[in-house]
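Researcher: I'm preparing a figure for a lab meeting and need a structural model of a single chain. I don't have an experimental structure, so a prediction will have to do for now. The sequence is pasted below. Please return the structure as C-alpha cells so I can convert it later.
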Amino acid sequence: MTPIRNVLIIGGSGFVGTALAERLTADGCRLVIPTRHRERARHLLPLPMVDVREADLFDPPTLATLMTGMDAVVNLVGVLHSRSGSPFGPDFARAHVELPKRLVAAARQAGVQRIVHVSALGASADAPSEYQRSKAAGEAEIRAAAPDVAWTILRPSVIFGPGDSFLNLFAGLLRRFPVLPLGGAGARFQPVYVGDVADVIAEAFLRSDAAGQTFDMAGPTRYSLQELVEYVGDLTGCPRPVIPLPEGLAMLQAGLLEMLPGPLMSRDNVRSMRAPNVSDGPPQPWGRVPTPLEVIAPMYLGKSNKRCRYTAFQLHRP
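Model: Understood. Here is the structure written out cell by cell.
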C-alpha cells in the first residue's frame, strides 16, 4: 500500500478530531483541518504539520481545493439534533448524507486513496430514530466510493475521554441538581475510549484488510444509562438519586428541552435509546483489547474524590 502522509480531517476541530490529530501528527502525517470558524480550532495550531483552514465544505470548488494532494480523508461530522422529517430531518440529511456524498465525489475526482467514515452503532434504515436512519443513509453514500476510493466505516458506541460531552454532561447535571429524573435509564451502552477510536483510524490507513469493511467500536463492558450516571456521581463525589422516567414522561421532558438553545435532549434521542447501543460482535477490529471506562474516567472526573486521585497517580507512575 502507498503510505498515507497527507490527511484531510472533516470535523477535525471537535472532541474525536482533536485526539485523532494528536495521534496522526505523532505518526508524521501532515493534516488539513477545515472549519467554519478558525477560532474553534485554535487549540490545534500548536500541533506540528497541521493546517487549519476556514472553509465551506458545501462549496464544490473549496472542497476540491481541500482534497488536492490528499492521500486520505476522515469524516467525523455528526449532529445530534435536527428538525424532524421522513425518513429523517433536513439537518440530519445535510450533515449525515449530503456531506458524505460530496466528500466521495470530491475524493474520486482528486484521486484520494482512502476514506475513513465514522458513523454510529445502531445505524440502520429501519432504526427507531431519524439520527440512526440518516447515519445508515450516509454509510450507503460512503460505500458507493468503491472501487475508486477504498473505504472503511467505523460504528462507535458513545465515546468517552477528557473533554467528552457525555460523561461530563452528567457530571455537570449531578453537581447542579439534588435529584436527576432520567429518560432512557435502562438503555444499554458500551462506551468506547476516544484514544481507541483514534488508534483504529490510524491503523486502518496501514491495513489492506480494512478496506471495504465496517467495524464496531465499543468498550469491554455494557452498562445501563442509569449505571453510568450513578458511576459518574460516585467519581465526582456528587451521588444523587436517579429517578427513571417511563418513555411517555421522557418524551415530554425531551420535548420541553427541545425548546431551549443547544438542547440537552430531544425526542429523537429518546427514540434512539429503544435500540441497545452495544456491539453484537467483537467490540473492536483486529483483536484489539478495548480500554476500560474505569481506567480513564477517574482521571478526569474524579478530582473531588481521593480514591480517584490515587487511581490517576497509579496509572501515571513510572
